[in-house]
Design a protein that fits this description.
about 280 residues, alpha/beta, Rossmann fold, Pantoate--beta-alanine Ligase, Chain: A,domain 2, 2 domains, about 40% helix
């Protein structure tokens, strides 16, 4: 018989649970999410199970990372089905607080960022990483997991969280897992549910275009010319790109010597009313 995970609603409950596990000499893995769990999230859980003794998945649609014009109210909230999925993987606890628990009356603290948080996403969502970093720091301090799992699909976010954890010397290892994709190459995302049937068929153009640009760069084409061609391909396919950019894979700085640096190609583009992001190694 499948056992449902314990549902924790307060920071005190989370702290008590993880402290009890640590006192027993058990290691703890945390997977921070906003719910609407898909196979990508579940892959993070499975990897955490291989690495740790106990798992807590957090489900919190974080208002601090949404601008007033964004989809906070419409973001899918599927806690019951999420919990059922996690029960099938043997997750011990789900931390699912409300906004008042995470940001009580009078709350006035956010984390200020630089380094990998500058550029790309912040050109279009300047509020985003401060909201992400603040809530992730609060979750890590509340639970002090041994590891926390993040997907590489949100590559800039992964590097921002790693930099923050290193800078604040939080005792949690940040583990990135490669992007999980549909059979046709589309990166899994909770926001894919917003796509119409026609948009879903067209959405694969994003990853296909990125692979084409990456192949050109590997073959020696100038990065600026290759990415400009990629942007033209996306626009021709009906996308409205925010960016398609080649960056140093470790710092997200613009590459200086392309042939000798680890490289990442990152993209964000609108298809209808849905904003898709993706990245691949170059």
């Amino acid at each position: 018989m499948t056992t449902l995970p314990a549902i924790l609603r307060t920071v005190g409950e989370l702290r008590a649970a993880t402290a009890s596990w640590h006192l027993q000499g058990l290691t703890v893995g945390m997977i921070p999410t906003m719910g609407a769990l898909h196979a990508g999230h579940l892959a993070l859980v499975e990897e955490a199970r291989r690495r740790t003794d106990r798992i807590v998945v957090t489900i919190f649609v974080n208002p601090a990372q949404f601008a007033p014009s964004e989809d906070f109210g419409a973001y899918p909230r599927t806690e019951s089905s999420d919990v059922d999925k996690l029960a099938g993987l043997g997750v011990e606890a789900v931390f699912a607080p409300n906004a008042a628990e995470m940001y009580p009356a009078g709350y006035a603290t956010t984390i200020s960022l630089a380094g990998p948080a500058l550029g790309l996403e912040t050109e279009f969502r300047p509020h985003f990483f401060a909201g992400v970093a603040t809530v992730v720091a609060k979750l890590l301090i509340a639970g002090f997991p041994d590891i926390a799992m993040f997907g590489e699909k949100d590559y800039q976010q992964l590097l921002v969280v790693r930099r923050m954890v290193a800078d604040l010397r939080l005792p949690t290892e940040i583990v990135g897992l490669p992007t999980i994709r549909e059979v046709d190459g589309l990166a899994l995302s909770s926001r894919n549910a917003y796509l119409s049937a026609e948009e879903r068929r067209n959405a694969v153009t994003l990853s296909a275009t990125m692979r084409s640009v990456a192949d050109e760069i590997r073959a020696g084409a100038p990065a600026t010319e290759a990415t400009m061609r990629g942007l033209e391909m996306l626009r021709a396919a009906g996308f409205k790109p925010d960016y398609l950019a080649l960056r140093n894979a470790e710092t997200l700085a613009e590459p200086q010597i392309v042939a000798s640096e680890p490289l990442r190609l990152l993209a964000a583009a609108w298809l209808g009313t849905t904003r898709l992001i993706d990245n691949i190694a170059v």
